[in-house]
Each structure stands twice: as C-alpha cells, then as structure tokens.
Amino acid sequence: MKRRDFLKLMGLASSSTVLSACGVDKKAEKLIPYLVPPEDDTIPGVPVYYNTTCTECPANCGISVKVREELPVKLEGLSGHPINDGSLCIRGQASLTRLYHPDRIRSPLRRNTQGQFKPISWSDAYDQMMQTLGQGGQHLYLAGRTTGTLSELIDGFCDERNIERLPEFESYSYAAIKEANRLLFNQSVIPHYRIEDADFMLTLGADILETFVSPVSHATQLARAKKLGQFLWYHAEPHVSLTGLQATERLVIQPGSETHLLRFLLRYLLEHVDYARRLPDAVARAIPNVSGEEVSAQTGIPSEELNQLARQFAEAEKPLLIAGGISTGHTSGLEVAALAGLIQWMMRMTDIVVDFSRAENDANVGTMLDMGELSQRLQEGNVGVLFISRANPMPNVPASYGFKENLRKARLRVGLSDFLDDTMQACDIVLPLSHTLESWGDTQSRKGLRTVIQPALEPIFDTRTEGDILLQLMQRRTGNTGVQTFREYLFTRWREKYGEDSIESLLHKGYFEDSPSGEFVRLSGTAAAELLTTASDPVDFGKPLLIAIPSLRTFDGRSRVLPLLSEIPDPLTTISYGDWVSVSEQDLRSNQWQDLDEIELTIPGGSIRLPVKTQPGLPGGISTIHWDMLKPLMLQVDPRTGESICYMDGVQMVSRGVSVPIPYLSGSSSQEGRGIIPDMERGDEDHDRGGPGMYPEHEHTDYRWAMVIDLESCIGCSACVAACYIENNVAVVGPEEHLKGREMSWIRMEPYYEEDGSAEFLPMMCQHCYNAPCEPVCPVYATYHNPEGLNAQVYNRCVGTRYCANNCPYKVRRFNWFKHERPGPSDEIQMANPDVSIRGKGIMEKCTFCIQRIRAARDTAKDESRKIQDGEVVPACAQSCPTQAITFGNIEDKRSRVYQLAHSFRAYRVFEHLGMEPGVYYLGKSEARSQKSEVDRGHQEDSN
C-alpha cells in the first residue's frame, strides 16, 4: 500500500471514531465534505452555479441553480434573462422541493391484475410497449406544452412509429384570445405584452401578476414602467384579485359585461381621436353607439369613471390594453378578445407594446374541445397505445366529456410523470421522468428565445428524461446497438442551429435570443366585421354567482403537491392549508354565517362542501373559489373557442351548521388605527419618531445593515416568503401546527384592507431594532445587538424562555416546539442549505438578514483587502422579488442606495413611536396616488 493511501484510510478511520464518540450524527452533519478532493475543480464549501430553466409553469423562466456538495440548495432567477431578469415567483422558488420530494416515482411501475402498481424494470416496460405498438389500432401521444428540441424529437418519434401527436393539453390555453387573433390577424398566438414601454395600461380580468401567461415578466416590467415616469394602470374585474389590488384604479365591473365596456371605449376612440389607422367602414358600423349612462348601467361602473377612463386612454402616448383571464372565461369571451384586438390594432399597440414577433410559442397547445374529441375517440374503442406525458387532464376536463370512463378503453395507457397524479393512477404503465435539474434539454417558450435545460446533479432515482425514453424506444425498433442519448441528440441539433463554437457560450449564458422578425400585423376587415355583426349578446349572469379563479400558489393544481406552497398563506386571505370559498362581507352578514362555517355549494352538475372566508372588497352575490378546488362535474366549456368557463350561476349555498378548522394566519385584516401603513397624502409621514431611549448607544464602526421595502413596488406575491424558507432551512410544520399558531415563517405578507375594498400589502420580518426590546429580557444573552447593527440570535445559548417573543411588538420571533423532520429521498440526500444550521427544538429563531450572505461577502472583501461594496449583499427575499421592492445595504454609508431611500420623504418605520428605531424602513404609497390626483385635477381644471 502506498503511504498516501495509508494516511487517507487512517484519517477516515480516526475521524469516524471521533465523530461517533462525540455523538454526532454523521448523516445530518457533514464536517468533512471531501476527504479526497473531487476531480472537477470543485472547491469544498464553495458553491457552483448552473444556468437552466424553471418548468413549474409554462412561462419557463431562466434560473441559476446553486449547488453545494453536489446537491442543489437554492434557485434564483437568471440575471439578464429576457423573461424574468433575475427574479423568481413563489412557485419557482418552491419548485426545488419537487426534486427532493419523497413521493416522487422512483422506478417504472406496472398495474397488476389486482389494480396495484408494482415496480418493473425499464426493459420490461419497453417490451410491453413495443408489443402493443406492434398491434393494430390508433396510437396517440398527448403531452403538456412542449417546445424546443424535445418537441422536434416527439414529432420524429410519432412519425417513425405511426403515432398521432395530439394537440397539447394545458388547463389555461387562452383559447379565446388565440381564436380572436386568428380571426382578426390570421395569427393564432398570444402576443408578448411590453408593459415597460407603456405609459397607460388597462387590464380586463387578466391576472397578470398571478398566473396569466408570464407573471414574473409582467411584474418586472411593471416595476420598470413605474420607475420610468408617470404610469397609470386601470384594472377592471368582477371579483378581487392580487392584480386588481395593485392597480392605480380598480374598477368593479358586472360579470360578463366587458363587451359593453370595450364597445364604449372603441366608439369613444373613433369619435374623439384621429388615428392614422382607421377601422374599415364595415367594422366601424358594426360597433353600436351607446351612451356612457347606458354602459354605466350595464357594467356597474359610474359614468364619470367611464368617461375619465376613456379620456385618459385616448390621451396616453403609449397605451396598452390586455384582456384575458376571467374576462374571456365565458360565452362572450371571444367578443371580448376581439374587441380588445381591434383597439390594439387601431391605436397602433401592435407596433409598439403588443408584440407579435415575440409571441408565446404555444401553437401546438389545444383547447378543451380537443379533449372532448379525444374522449370520443377513446369511446369508440380503436385506440391502441395512449401516451400521456407531463399532463394531468383528468381533474381539469369537464365530467360531461366522460374522459375518465373512456380512458379505460385504450388498450394500453402509458404515463410519463414524476408523481402519481389522478391521470397517472389511471394508466397501465407509468414511466418516471427525471426532474429538470437532472435533465438535458431546452425550451422555446417565446418566439426567438431558446433557454437551456442542463442538469445540476445525477438522477436521484431510477428515472429518465422523456427524450431518452423516446430514443430508446426508437432504437429498440431499429435494433441499433449504438445508444444515442438525448444529450447527444440535443447537442447535434444545437450545432446545426448555432455552430460548434456557440455551444459553450449557450451553456454559460443559459439562453440565446435572436433579433425580432418585425412581423407585420394586418387586420382582416372582413373577418372583423363578420365577427362583430354575428356577435352574441353579452352574457347576463344571475346571482348568486361563483367564479373559479387561478391560484397564485398552485396554478391549475399542478403545484399542489409541493407542501411549501400550502405552508405559505394565500396573500389575500392568509389561509395556509385547506380549501375554501371566498364570500363577500354582505353575504356573510345576510346569511348569518361566520368565517370557516361549512356550506354546501350546489350548482347544476354537482356540489361541494367548503368553509367560507370573508373577502373584503368582494361584491355582494359573488363568491370565488380556486380552479383546482372544483370538481370536474362543475366544469363547462365555450363551444366556439374551447375556453373553460369560469362563471357558474344558479348557485345554492346552504350552511351545514358546523365549522371547519382551517388555519388563517392574520390576526386582523384591518390596521385597527395603528398606522402600520400611514397615508402619506394626508401628511401621516410626520409621525412621532419616539423620544430619548433608555438604552446605551451602540457603536457601528464600518457597517450597520438596514433594509428598505418600497410598498409602491411590492405586489404581495410572497416570492420573498418562499425564498426565505428555502435559503434559511425554515421548517415546514403542517396544518396542525398552523392551527395552533405555531407557524415558523421568518417573513410574512400582511394584507390590510380599507372600507372601500382596497388593500395594502406589507412584508413583515424581524425589524433588527437599534433599541430592540427582545434583547434586555433574554436571561442568557442569546439575542443581542451585534457590531454591525443586526439583532443576532445565538442558538446554542437559547434556553427557550420565549421572553423575547413576548416583548416583540412585531410578532416575528418563532419558537421551535419540535425537531421538525425534513423528509427527503433518503437519509443521505436532504434539501438543506449547508450555510445555515438546522435549528432544533426548544429555541427561538427569526430573520437574520441572511447573515450567511453577509459573511460570504465579508470573506470576499477581506481577501481583496477592501470593505463590502454597496449591492454586494443581497438577502434571499430581495434577490427573488420580481419588482425589486426590497433594497439592502449599509446605512452607515451615505452613498449607499439604502441610505438614500431611508432618508426619502416617503420613508417611515412601523411602530417607530415606541422608540425602538427599527432597521427596516418602508416607503409609503404616495407617488402613484399623487400622479393620478394630478391628472384628475388637470382634467377638472380643463372642464372648468
């Protein structure tokens, strides 16, 4: 034996003995990450980053994966990416937990004669599929939205095996918008909306900040638009959404009356504005001439607000109109989308802010009508093998289609997925797909943009990528012994498109964007006139009315499997775990209900039992429910477009006389006069800053860390909350602990509602007070004010008296009642950030301003013999924020951004009259309101 090998073995043995003697769990604490340094230039303790793509929703944002000790520990938005530019949403942050989820499918499964799934080998699974493919019948391939090289491979596989590739399935297909654009412009696409280039925006029903098309892109653009200058935003909706509450002006519109509003706007623009683009005479004649009073009665919007909206719309230099979401989710949705398209074309939005050259690449996405046709074909009994990949249509297809029953008539049902969802449980063979972070690939979610998918680790389980599965099936048919992997297939296609020299750059940058084509948008006047002439009457819904809305946390239900998204409360209601139906305060009083009373909600087609929760601002007679909480029996489809209908009238709600215990974490939805968010326009910024304190002064030689949160930019999306959970190993405790008020979140989103239904959202975390009331009451000095201004917490000292929590007026300190287990694929593989300790039971914990990131920046600055520069330390919450509402830095540096913002006339601190001098500053909402007030005053002066 060589001397070096002998010393290595002795070191390994001795370290194991010492660790065992000290009682340290070697699986939980890896003191020596690498006894033998790896050969890939990895430095132990130094993270490695890979640029790849988030696939938690079809938006396909670019992400940067932080890898430590060969395991991904954090996802961040990819800086400079054309879609999200360094930001990430709540679902994108939580998508890392999908990789480590213990319920992932670990190997191929086959249903036995008893109907149970049993593991089988890949070879056996391939043999059974090949055998059935060789038999007669129609073979079909149904996938979720697929773009890029994988889509090309699916086409090749289907052509070779004589398999029909079906239109792709997505619950949110935006069918009405695509059909309207096809009729008007001969382009069945969703355009790219350039919000940042607009100075006035009107959105109808489209939840642009939650799920509509690409919400992170919309949020980042919205922040830029607000910072560039005066930007006014009107949003019309019949319910309450996070998007509507962020608009400059929220208009409550009667359900289904969007057509009346758009006709009024179109007629106003024709009569008051001289455009270079005039609508064809046949189109103009088809637009009815209605008065503001008539439209006001039809839409419920006061006539003065209608006239003001039309006037500001006409006077804007770069207006933008977006119609979608629930505004097109009814039988008049096609007319809504078409009228919006006409306004976009006439006002030259299609040349500036409605970009068809960068349209969404979803030409293969079908509609619910396509699912009805598939169900009919299944019923006929001629389908041989049905492949279902990355799609879960069963809970999202109307029960009237009979899809669930007809699916059994396929000879062989093959599912490709990572979880056993409803549709996979109805399959005969289930093939486990590797996670995106274990895979090679690319996406083209938008025209002209290709984003790379590259692995950050080897597959944890016996899983394979969809591309490898298809290639292996093709090779079995041809008998080709030379195994080609999907990685090789992918690189071959990249070389053909970009050349050999560009591949390394593509992998490093993470995406490739070519120059726009400058596609010309031409209006088909004949089709437009015919559509308007034959348009159906606007739908008139009766009340009570139930509206199914998308979920910020679960999208269409695909993200419900991730526990973190249930742990983080819904920002509108602060409900964490469970299903519910939101009702108005008026309906709650008239029915003599209380929050969390269970009701039986019945509509034609089915019934469901849910607790009720008050939603301030919701009109009387209207209730809302998240889409994935519905039963398929309740779903209907517009027969013209295939758009899912999200309005259900004829609703009956009957109390069952019981209460359902589901947790909602807000103590009150009102500020209760405490001035948590002062009204800056009334002069509340001159609030009491407290008198002389009784604590001694602190000395801060070089640094005093502080944070500024711009409430004008904050949209309440809770991406910061998810980022904090992942970065700081915050425990997910579950519904039972939430019901006891034992949530562990270090940062929470607090909604505060006004009497008019408007709301303000305030992120609340440890305020890192200069005179922190938690510090003097700790008997063991576990919490103290450190030399850099942080309210630090020494976990090893804490004995859990909880005196600090009792003394904190912000209620941001958490007590660990238990040692919360972190379920993972195995004892060796856990999702945890090694830079942050996992706290045990019996201690207090709270926000640390991501002190581990401060230390990393200090180490770098020390190596370079300098101080930490402004912007070098970015906490997880600030890094993920889509609107960059959070700024962090050294407030001792008068040149720093955080110092400048903290001394803004908009700056204030919560409860600072108590004299604690918090280190978190908030910027009140004054600019947008003052802009709107100035515009209104200008119009009033003109009219006088």
Helix and strand topology:
Blueprint: H1 3-21, E1 48-53, E2 62-68, E3 71-77, H2 90-94, H3 96-99, E4 109-111, E5 117-119, H4 122-133, E6 138-143, H5 148-161, E7 163-165, H6 175-185, E8 192-193, E9 200-204, H7 215-228, E10 232-237, H8 242-246, E11 249-252, H9 258-272, H10 281-285, H11 292-299, H12 303-315, E12 319-323, H13 333-346, H14 349-352, E13 354-355, H15 368-379, E14 383-389, H16 403-406, E15 412-417, E16 429-432, E17 441-446, E18 449-453, H17 466-478, H18 486-498, H19 503-509, E19 511-513, H20 525-533, E20 545-549, H21 563-567, E21 581-583, H22 585-590, E22 597-603, E23 606-614, E24 622-626, E25 636-637, E26 644-645, E27 647-649, E28 652-659, E29 705-710, H23 719-727, H24 735-739, E30 747-753, E31 759-765, E32 783-785, E33 791-793, H25 803-807, E34 814-815, E35 844-845, H26 851-863, H27 876-880, E36 886-890, H28 897-902, E37 907-908, E38 920-923, H29 927-943
Parallel strand pairs: 6-7, 6-14, 9-10, 9-12, 10-11, 14-15, 15-16, 20-24, 21-23, 29-38
Antiparallel strand pairs: 1-2, 2-3, 4-5, 4-16, 8-13, 17-18, 18-19, 20-27, 22-23, 22-28, 25-26, 29-36, 30-31, 32-33, 34-35, 37-38
Helix pairs in contact: 5-17, 6-13, 9-11, 9-13, 11-12
